[in-house]
Amino acid sequence: MSVSFISAGLSTLPASEAYPLCGPEWAARPGPPAGCGPEAAPPRPGWKNPHVSNVTVQLEMKSLWEEFNRLGTEMIVTKAGRRMFPTFQVKILGMDSLADYALLMDFIPLDDKRYRYAFHSSTWLAAGKADPATPGRLHFHPDSPAKGAQWMRQIVSFDKLKLTNNLLDDNGHIILNSMHRYQPRFHVVFVDPRKDSERYAQENFKSFIFSETQFTAVTAYQNHRITQLKIASNPFAKGFRECDPDTWPRAPRPVLSPIPQSSRPLKDHHREELGPALSRGLSGAPGTVHLAPEALLAPPGCPSVSYHGLYVGASVRTRPAPYPFPETKVLGSQEALPLRPPQGALGLLASSRVNLPLAFPLDPLYR
């Protein structure tokens, strides 16, 4: 089944009859307009193949489409292509379970006008004659063709369909003119196994139009109410929603249990092992540890720093350092370094000059 064969069959619907299908201007016409009922009727009556004549289609998310339609649905078109929201989804009934069908969509202009949005009145106004028509394209559902039983088993979604305003698009996207109004059409095509199936092209397909799905193609949303409705109803737009942070769902935080304390007080010999500074720092309420400033220093038994012991195999002979430390005063030996703590450093060190033996070796290269 070729694309030219299907296009030839679908071309039997004249463009003059593809313009607005529902609206006040059609009220004077006799008979109900096509596509205005809960289950859309084919655009043009005529004899159809029994494999498609009994097919009925129901639009999914109908209430959401109607809500958008009341505000004036807008669909974004970009050069790279943008998916539709709401997504066109349908439920199909009445197919032959063993027959093969192809499902496809196309888009037709609602009129021959170009529009602009009046922000002061929040309405769309005609702004002149329509731009030259874009190349007509058909979008086949990626599962086509398939048995009727498969199509009827679940909801059919055209979530891969993309709209673009790039006239040179080579990705198969639907090409539309910005600021023009369009009506999507849904087609069910019976895959006729006969060799001369082209002779029956007009009777092997059935088209459905839902007026609530018509929209205006735009490069940026014009109506702020459309923007708000899309953010509120699109599950992929959660990042744009504005709400009270206190109402956001939060994951439960892990409960940090306090450090287990022994029920028995520390013995004197335990305090002696910990040292006087650390044992004094352990005083306080259970579950909390307060360290005295002296506990942050090196323990008394830690060896002082000597640059002679930093090199393996260095001579045991000691000699003074070749270069004195900048802005320091040697106090008897270089094993104790005078450090100048910053003024008011959290009150840990009260004096402005304290000799602190370092608890780690100091590289002479960084002295």
User: What is the top-level CATH class of the domain at 48-110 and 136-237?
Assistant: Mainly Beta
Task: Write down the CATH topology of the domain at 48-110 and 136-237.
Answer: Immunoglobulin-like
Mean pLDDT across all residues, rounded?
73
Counting DSSP E segments of at least 2 residues, the number of strands comes to 17
Second-tier CATH architecture of the domain at 48-110 and 136-237: Sandwich
Classify the secondary structure makeup into a structural class.
alpha+beta
Rounded to the nearest angstrom, the distance between the terminal CA atoms is 84 Å
Region (Disordered): 248-281
Domain T-box: 59-242
GO molecular function, one term: DNA-binding transcription factor activity, RNA polymerase II-specific
Pfam families: T-box
Architecture overview:
This protein is of the alpha+beta class and 367 residues long. The protein has a domain at 48-110 and 136-237: Sandwich (Immunoglobulin-like). The protein contains 7 helices and 17 strands. Strands 2, 5, 8, 9, 13, 14 and 15 form a 7-stranded mixed beta sheet that branches. Strands 1-4-10 form a 3-stranded antiparallel beta sheet, with no helix packed on it. It has a 3-stranded mixed beta sheet with strand order 3-11-12, with no helix packed on it. Strand 6 and strand 7 form a beta hairpin. The longest helix is centred in the first third of the chain and has 10 residues, at 62-71. The protein is globular, with a radius of gyration of 40 Å.
